[in-house]
Amino acid sequence: MLALHTDHPQNRYFALIITCVNSSAARFTYRPQLEAISSTLIVATIDCILLLRVWILFGKSRRLLYFMVPLISVEIGVMFFIVEATIMSEDKYLHVGPFITGCYPPQTLPKDFTLYPIPSLVVASTMFAMTIYNCKMRLGHSFHLRNTMPIVNLFLRDGIFWFMAVVAVIPPQILIWAVARPTLSELLIIPSIAVYSIIGARVILNIMEIMNVHHELVIVA
Q1: Into how many domains does the chain fold?
Q2: Where are its TM segments located (predicted)?
Q3: CB 3.0 to 4.6 Å from 128: which of 10, 163, 185, 212, for a disulfide?
Q4: Would you give the distance in Å from CA 195 to the centre of its chain?
Q5: How far apart are CA 95 and CA 19, in angstroms?
Q6: Quick check: 147 and 87 in contact, CB under 8 A?
Q7: Is there a contact between 46 and 199 (Cβ–Cβ < 8 Å)?
């Protein structure tokens, strides 16, 4: 419970700070590097929350941790490796003008950088599939069971909304980085950070509400 109380404000305010910095520091020399690192940290934090959801849904299985911990570790490692091999290797950036914010490399973005969101998409897809599988097994095909298992319904609804948001953000971002001109490369960075942070905060609040209700039931009993 303490971890949830701590992660919620940290994630929310950290994302807000990064958004403000990204919006205002248009002439900051290391702004692209800052964006890449901060985005990786935010995505990693949100994906940890996603894994926590699924872990709770599967009854806090210790065996499942043997799969989840390496999965999130590989995701973070691959994302940082891509950042190091692409964004960090660039040493020259240009500020286009007063009407276009941000700093851009003289050439187009390295093609390998289009792989950056893929680890997060893989993790989100895996967790979504596990959520659907578990909820389907619990709810079955009977409608009356859905009214007696509100926690499973909540986790299922959050999982669907989460995956829809990820699909709405990541594929367009990959497409922009792959074929669009450099001045459009930052088009979805701020919206994606905001979407991830809002959904992550919402999921944490739902988990905290479930834990509080369970704690109250235990006290009453």
Answers
A1: 1
A2: 36-57, 64-83, 114-133, 154-175, 187-205
A3: 163
A4: 8
A5: 19
A6: no
A7: yes
- Residues shown for the chain: 221
Domain range enclosing 146: 2-220
**In sequence order, what are the residues at sequence separation of 6 or more whose Cβ sits closer than 8 angstroms to the Cβ of residue 30?**
none
Q: Spell out the SS3 assignment of the chain.
A: CHHHHHHHHHHHHHHHHHHHHHHHCCCCCCHHHHHHHHHHHHHHHHHHHHHHHHHHHCCCCHHHHHHHHHHHHHHHHHHHHHHHHCCCCCCCCEEEECCEEEEECCCCCCHHHHHCCHHHHHHHHHHHHHHHHHHHHHHCCCHHHHCCCHHHHHHHHHHHHHHHHHHHHHHHHHHHHHHCCHHHCCCCHHHHHHHHHHHHHHHHHHHHHHHHHHHHHHHHC
Terminal Cα distance for the chain, rounded: 20
> Beta partners for 95?
103
pLDDT in tens, the chain (221 residues): 444 444 444 455 555 555 555 544 444 455 566 777 777 888 888 888 888 889 988 888 889 999 999 999 999 999 989 888 877 666 566 665 555 555 665 555 677 778 888 999 999 999 999 999 988 887 775 545 555 567 788 888 888 888 888 888 888 888 888 887 766 777 777 788 788 778 878 878 877 777 666 554 444 44
Type of residue found at 70: P
